[in-house]
Amino acid sequence: MKIDRLLSIVMLLLDREKISASKLAEMFEVTPRTIFRDIETINKAGIPIITYPGAKGGIGIMEKFKLEKKLFTTTDVITLLLGLNSLNAIMSSEDLLKTRVKIKGLVSEEQILLFESKIVIDPTPWLGKQTQKLNFDDLRTSLINNRLLSFDYCDQFEELSQYKVEPYRLVLKDTLWYLHAYCLKLQGFKMFKLSSMSSVKLHDEQFSPKNLKSEPLDPSENKQIYLKLLIDESLRHYMAGYCGEENVTFHKNNKWLVKFPFVESDYGYGHLLSFGEKCICLEPEHVRLEVMNRINQLMKKYRNTVSLN
């Protein structure tokens, strides 16, 4: 991609006194004419380029500009590293590692150590299984070249399924990374959590991209509704964080009313039931009845279970 090549050229010129156009063309596998067009673009962007004539000449960046390092401020570098660290936490890539090393060279080691001691990115859960890193190179190749991907996927109920998809975009939503893809098995778009994907395989087979303009990020068939809950004081802070302070109002006798976002699925009902006796669903009536039904079914199973002792 041109933007990648331009950034790489700038990084090289910042690191070296000068380099010939033919050498740059060889490194990036393009023609010298393309390199001269890139240099013109870089110059127009405000980075002062100098050309040195003669057999030992070449292309360089004005020394004063290099000394002042106005291309990236310390804040710029820290911001870039924060983004790269968040990617590196869930994806493995030699290119990501090389880019982090290059960017680290723009600021002092003391500043890097201070930054890395203050901000830690760790997507692994406090409890349960550890998330595994994916090969970012395969994901990037599939996205750029429209190549099919297949993988194993562990859903929220710990059931493992195999999918073959047309990948369209990576999405960071609510601190988690997802792959937005067209599922060949389901014949529709679906969001796949990267931390739940394994055994990813990049196929040679290509696909013709579909129009994404009308496709929502969350193509789930289950629509969100709102419940009216009555909760104990002990759940107030959790509900304020989950639903927003404006959706939690005082009722009486240390009880609070909550406007609670809810999707009617096994996962949604499981989440609701996890609050136990500290939470009662008041509305809508059909959700309230379904909660009671699930509690009764659970009690029936426990009563009918034969002791294993």
Written description of the protein model:
This is YafY family protein. Keywords: Transcription, Transcription regulation. Residues 2-57 form the HTH deoR-type domain. With 309 residues, the chain is of the alpha+beta class. The protein has four domains: 2-68, Orthogonal Bundle (Arc Repressor Mutant, subunit A), CATH 1.10.10; 74-118; 134-206, SH3 type barrels; 224-304, no CATH class. The chain is built from eleven helices and 13 strands. The strands form four sheets. Strands 8-7-6-5-9 form a five-stranded antiparallel sheet, with helices on one face. Strands 11-12-10-13 form a four-stranded antiparallel sheet. It has a two-stranded antiparallel ribbon with strand order 1-2. The protein is elongated and about 90 Å long. The termini are far apart. The mean pLDDT is 80.
Main traits of this protein?
309 residues, alpha+beta, Arc Repressor Mutant, subunit A, SH3 type barrels, 4 domains, five-stranded antiparallel β-sheet, four-stranded antiparallel β-sheet, 11 helices, YafY family protein
Summarize the structure.
With 309 residues, the protein is of the alpha+beta class.
